[in-house]
Structures are given as C-alpha cells and as structure tokens.
Amino acid sequence: MLPFNFAYYKPESIQEALELYQTLKVQGKTPLYYGGGTEIITLGRLNLIYADAIIDLKGINECKIFEVRNDELIIGSTVGLSVFEAKKLFPLLTDTTNEVADCTSRNKITIGGNICGRIFYREAVLPFLLADSTIITAGPKGIRKLLLSETFHKELQLEEGEFLVQIIIEKEYLHAPHLSIKKRKQWDTGYPLLTVTSLKKDGYLRFAFSGVCPYPFRSISMEEILNDQKLSYKDRVLASFEHLPNPILNDIEGSNDYRLFVLENTISAILSRLGGEEHE
Q1: What's the rounded Cα separation, in Å, for the pair 234 and 228?
Q2: How far apart are the first and last CA of the chain?
C-alpha cells in the first residue's frame, strides 16, 4: 500500500501524455510519468516520493518498440528488462540486466524506469554509455534527439515534464566483444556491490561502472590509461584509480576500500579476458 492516493492516466500518444502532464500541473497536481512502477512503490512506501497523478507511458507505441530498423536497434523506454533475456538483440545489455533484482521484478522493471530511477545503481545505462547511444525524449520543447553521453551526467538530465521515449544504438555495436561482471558481497540477488561493463571497439576497450560511486559513469580518462599497453594490468588499474570520480561508496554493501579491492580485480579480469595486451 502507498501512503497517498493518486489518479491514474494511460495516454495513447506522446502528445496526449505531454498535454496531460501540463494540464495536471496547471491544476496544482504533482504528476509522475510511470513505466514499470517498481521504484514508485518502493520509494513511495518510504515517503521518499509523492504523486497525486500517475501518467502510464506503456500505452504509447513509440515507447514499446524493440527492433532493429535501418541498421539501428531501437528500444522503447517501457520495454521490460526480462524482454532482453528472451530477445537478445544486444547481448551486452542482456548480460548487464539479467541479474538486476529477481525474475519477477525484471518482468515489471522497464529500461526507462531503471535509467531514470533514483536508486543509484541504474546499471542498465552502462551498455548504452559504451555504445555511443542516442536517445529520443519528449517534453515542452517537443521531440529531441540527443547523445546520451551529453545528456547523462550522474543521472539523465531531463527537463520538467520531459520523458524518455527511446534509446537508439547503431548496429555495429550490438555484437562487439564485451563483458559485464556484477559482484555481490553475498547471495545471488539483491543490490550488487558493483558492476563493471566493457565493450571492445576497434581494438580499444571501453569501461562503464555502477556501484563504485553514487551514480553510474563512464570515464574516458580511465579508459586511456587502461588501454596503455606499455603498462602491466595492475599498473594500469592503479593508475586509472587516480581518475575515479568522488566519492567512492561506503555503505552496508561494502566499504570504499573493499570496493576498490574488488574493482581492481574485476578490471584486471576484463583486461585479460577481452585481450588487452599486457606489457612484459
């Protein structure tokens, strides 16, 4: 049970959703866009989120698409995470999302809900950061096509009343060599300690991280060092740590020192398995 009542709306078009949001705001309401709803329920029960109007985006066709078209993979924001396990069009995305929560939850969690959520892991964004993805958003300024790398800074920077419609990945990235490693302190489900994803493009390893800091990120500065074949794996990793964003998480899942220890071993394993040549 949520500690507040709300009105529920399910528009059938992007324009209807935008107009509905603005109308509700004029009426003094607090509307929220809704994809899967798991986070609204979780945070609502803790009194960390409030809405008296919910706008369900799952009735909008553009938000439900999941297909390759014109050499691009298009993923609608309301596609559930479990779909990526059944239809492996982007294997790195499947490998990254198939351990998010449990199977029942993945049937409800949507890709847009994970990326735009408030819980800091949001590991579903990592493959898209590595694949130079673009996003389609809809808001008061109309439909916008943006580079994800220019729009995601700790979180997806959406304007008031704007929502994520689609994510687009060029076909050349879909089956590139890749690896996703999720580390947990214990158990097979629940929140991870950290997640590291890597994709190899033109012989160059790209890295993105979740659970290291209070937000997911990709670091170009770290990548430059991690691809320096003049250094050993250990020296690369330790030198790359100088470019880690702050702060390093220190919570019930693990201390900051323990996270760095696990991160060092995880990155080294990726360098070895994806063929990052090591200096002798």
Answers
A1: 12
A2: 60
Residue 17 CB neighbours (<10 A):
25
Reported in sequence order, the residue ranges of 95-174 that DSSP labels E, i.e. its strands, are 134-139, 142-147, 152-153, 155-156, 163-170
Q: Rounded to whole angstroms, what are the CA distances from 27 to 21, 41, 220?
A: 10, 24, 45
Of 89, 110, 87, 88, residue with least CA distance to 100: 110
H/E element holding 40?
Answer: helix 38-45
Mean of the pLDDT values across residues 242-249?
A: 96
Going from the C-alpha of 91 to that of each of 58, 88, 128, the distances in angstroms are: 24, 5, 12
Is the C-alpha dihedral spanning 127, 130, 132, 134 positive or negative? Answer: positive
Helix axes 256-273, 233-240, angle to 10 degrees: 140
| Distance in angstroms (rounded) separating the CA atoms of residues 217 and 133 | 14
Mean of per-residue pLDDT scores for the chain: 90
Distance CA 75, CA 67 (A): 7
The helix/strand/coil state of 233 is: helix
- DSSP character for 2? -
More confident residue, 6 or 185: 6
Backbone angles phi, psi at 220, to 5 degrees: -65, -35
Which amino acid belongs to residue 57?
Answer: L
pLDDT level of residue 187 (50, 70, 90 thresholds): low
Domains, the chain, in order of start with CATH, read: 7-58 (3.30.43.10), 62-171 (3.30.465.10), 178-273 (3.30.390.50)
Which residues make Cβ contacts (< 8 Å) with residue 49, sequence separation at least 6? 32, 39, 40, 43, 118
